[in-house]
Amino acid sequence: MLHALYKEVRIPLCIVLPALLACAALFSIYALNPTPIDRYNTGSDGSYWQSMDYLDTGQHMPSFLPNRFVTGSGFILTVVELERVFGSREVSWLLLNSVFYVGMGLCFYALAAAVLKDARAAFFSTLLIAFNYAAVVYGPYYAADASGWFFYIATLYCSFRFYASGEHKWLWAAAALVGIGGVFKEYALCGGIAVACSIVFAQRGQWFKKLALLFGAGAVCAGPFLLANLWTWHVFQYTYLNWWAYNQTQQSTFPDSRLDEYIKVLGGIYNVAWFLFLPGLYLLWQRRRNIMSDVSLSFILIVALSSLPVLVWPPFQRVFFITAPTFVLVAGLFFARVRRYWLLVPWFAAYVLCAYLMDSYILKAVNIGPLLHVLLAGH
After folding, report:
1. What is the DSSP code string of 17-28?
2. Which of 42, 182, 284, 377 has the greatest number of CB atoms lying within 10 Å of its CB?
3. Looking at beta carbons, which pairs linking 79-86 to residues 24 or more positions away fall under 8 Å?
């Protein structure tokens, strides 16, 4: 009787997952209370705010840095237009990022279900993405990161569909997502690597066709981003190269090397999930001989390749979230083998707690910098 009752009240995942993601976004806003600070200096959200003011008034302060026009002109324009509808820039900003956060989770579930071919493993994998420290802190937040993550993961899904089926509609959908996403947040451009790899590996032995597709898809992927840079050069004499150089000099906080920072950043954003990733990595290693013949395994490597551009940037948690799809898909190989999913509950509970308590408590209480310095220096 209880089993029959359970079957009657069971709610479809297509309702549960969007509701869960929406609740996570609302809870993150409530618990972490993001505020658009530093509006009129060159801080992260401050430069966004000033860029939106420029679109509204055509005026800017002498210290204005037009970096957000080369990294997120589409995002800025969208927030400004939504502000005219809702009457509040803050509400419009958080609403837009919450939509992107939910969309990111849904796209990743579709990707994980297609790659892992296991609905439950895909669901648990999506939880790892949605409740990652970087996702909950910098997703429903006054920045543009959630938009880049959404377009990047949506691109990965369409790239996989093209890679697995060879249907060109998925290729052009992936390229369009990169093109649009590239003017929302540059993370989306990483998806262009997945698009290119999918063409190279999917169209075996057809070199002329590969080159034609690479050229066409490349134009669609890079065109909007290049046009945005041409506009900022015309108006401000500023391009993405200026922003990249600024980050390498003004935002570099690593006196010796970045290795210790990589360890701290990756340890922080994945924390206890490493114990879920390592079994998946072992399973991937066991199946290494089948990687090139297995569509799912080879695509995980393509996803990994697409995340490599983060290494040219200073290690920030929100930037390194681009590595999360690779990390989680590998962990998903382990989830697909698990039969007693209740055993994962303690790990997920600890993972969620770490995400929400990281800034307030954990990072203040734990300082592994001196230990890493001793270990890496060989003393």
Report:
1. HHHHHHHHHHHH
2. 182
3. 79/48, 79/52, 80/52, 80/55, 80/56, 83/52
Domain that holds residue 362: 2-377
Q: What is the pLDDT of residues 233-285, one digit of tens each?
A: 999 999 999 888 887 776 554 445 677 788 888 988 999 999 999 999 999 99
- pLDDT tens digit sequence for 74-119: 999 999 999 999 999 999 999 999 999 999 999 999 999 999 999 9
At a CB cut-off of 8 Å and minimum separation 6, what does 126 contact?
17, 105, 108, 109, 112
For the chain, the maximum distance between any two Cα atoms, rounded to a whole number of angstroms, is 72
Query: Which parts of the chain fold into alpha helices (H)?
Result: 2-9, 13-32, 44-57, 67-86, 89-116, 119-130, 133-138, 145-165, 168-181, 191-202, 207-236, 240-249, 259-270, 274-286, 295-306, 317-320, 324-335, 345-357, 363-365, 369-377
Copy the structure tokens of residue 178. 């990169």
Distance CA 3, CA 265 (A): 45
Tell me the residue type at 11.
Answer: I
